[in-house]
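Aim 2, interim progress: modelling of the NAP-bound target.
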Amino acid sequence: MIKEDDAAIAAALEDLSIPTMMLSLVHMTGDPKWIRGDIRPQGLFLNEVQGFMPEEMQEEARAIALDVIKSYRDGGCVMPPPPSRALIAEMMNWLVCDEVPEEYIPMMLEDMELDGRDARAVEWSTRSVDARDEFPVVVIGCGQSGLLAGIRLKEAGIPFTIVEKNPAVGGTWFENTYPGCRVDVGNHFYSFSFEPNDHWSEFFSRQPELQAYFSDVLNRHELQPFVRWETEVLSARWNDSEAMWTVRTRDAEGEERELEARAVISAVGQLNRAKFPDIPGRENFGGPSFHSSRWDHSVDYKDKRVAVIGAGASGFQIVPTIAADTERVTVFQRTAQWMFPNPNYHEKVGAGVQWAIRNLPFYGRWYRFLLFWPGCDGGLLAARIDPDYTHEADEAGEQATAVSPVNDAARMMFTDWIVSQLGDDADLIDKVVPDYPPTAKRTLQDNGSWLSALRRDDVELVREPIAHVDEKGVVLESGRRFDVDLIVYATGFQANKMLMPMEVVGRGGVVLSERWGEEPAAYLGITMPDFPNFFCMYGPGTNLAHGGSLIFHSECQIRYISGCLKALIEGDGRAMEPRQSVHDEYYERTQRELETLVWSSPHVKNSWYKNAHGKIHILSPWRLVDYWNWTRKPNLADFEFDRDESDFGLS
Ligand code: NAP
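Predicted structure of the complex, ligand included:
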């Protein structure tokens, strides 16, 4: 119920996304006229906050909205019947100033939950209650994906244990506490579809708020009793005769225990095993040094000389945050990074937005769609290599700087953004404009803070190679040296050594790390032959470089995994694993597809997307809508069961 008076409502409207607000009026009144008149967005931008409309149009829209909301309030907030599907499609098109293709609408509707239904939850038959009770599952990790797995297993009534090496939930959002750490995907979308949050204080939250969100979700779903905190999984071994996994753990006291499970869900993430650079002499440094993901808050960087080695997504956030407090910061960046202009990156969410999410019908859900859509599959367009396109720099025998006309347009837009901030500082422009195609490495978000930090007198960007580290600091190959008090290694993670250092041993003693090496592969990123009843979340080939959100992907994966568990339990199966041919065909198709995308560009030498041999195994090249479709329900014909699958009745 809306209790606020007219003035308070009018004040709240000042903060809102006007297009989103107009759609809420349609829900409030059942009348589509609000989106059939002259008021309409003039374009769509990724991460927009208020919408792209002339100021007078915004004023007119607010005046209309105030009247409508007042009537809605005075009438007791009674909503008319929901809009028809055709009208919803019209609302989508109106909001994004384009036609949302029919194939996307079911996925978007599911994500928005306009019908209030958590459609991604799997429905279980009442007759399988006892069978579920005898099907214990171990989940490894309690980051966003492990937490999600726990929620779905609890809903299903399947006994489970989550084993988490940290003392709290959040995974990467628990571990990365470095100054400036925040998410790059708008939070009103970067959250579980069934657990929207009305009180994000910033559009791109900082780490403490994210961790608090996951902690709240954990508590709301009463999952604490199911988690063994500060306990690491050492190994998981498949026992074929029993059709059981034995999961060996070690807790904080060093005590080792075994858990028996019918299935294992690995939810260990890709970005949590720190990678230190192979720079000689690191151990000789006399002062404190640590990895960005293990920030030592007992070390005071104030008024100190700080070296930040590595400037990808982490370094990019650290440097602008600490620069003003230090004596000086030297940033050692091997490869320049493309950045995407995002003026709202550090913006606070107005109180009016929080109020609207709570009070205006479906405001929050449409705002989620507004964030999701432009970051959905459009990113693949700019990533696709046009084999008939040759960039002029390539013709001149220089580094290729674009792989298609669309990619070149992104290059120009990103370059303009950089140059617009650096004016005539040719030296700095030369250092910060990358010489490889845009989006080939992870594109960073920027609201100007990175480049303004680099322009400070007490910050220096060094692009020359490091020779070694010694007791006092960092020495370049040129012989130039930088004496420092603290070294921060923002040098990323061992993403290609997936699931390490756990020892996972499948059927016939096959060791997963040996099978994979640095070429991890799994059918749909989830299942592997010879590893029955072992399921990955955020597994091989599922990292997203072109858009979406990993939470969206996790929701796809857990639905698929739940479907597999259902097939096993309700079909009285002991074990399932993907057919080798299905797995291999998917792997080869994925590899072929990756080769058509900019991340594979040979012009990019250093990228955590690539393994030591320059091959990509961790990224998904697929449209989100395809992955969503493929994972809605397992195709049981893709699997071998230890009994005839025709008995399952669940195809
Ligand atoms: P990263 O992107 O892998 O960046 C590592 C940095 O260290 C790069 O500048 C890299 O240079 C440099 N480096 C690595 N080894 C080096 C060596 N031997 N010598 C010199 N430089 C070296 O790692 P990250 O910044 O921690 O980010 C990893 C991923 O975590 C991100 O891509 C993102 O997916 C996620 N993340 C997200 C956020 C967010 O959402 N806001 C924030 C942080 C991290 P090269 O570029 O030359 O390899």
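The CA atoms of residues 89 and 105 lie 7 Å apart. Residues 126-273+495-642 form a domain with the FAD/NAD(P)-binding domain fold (CATH 3.50.50.60).
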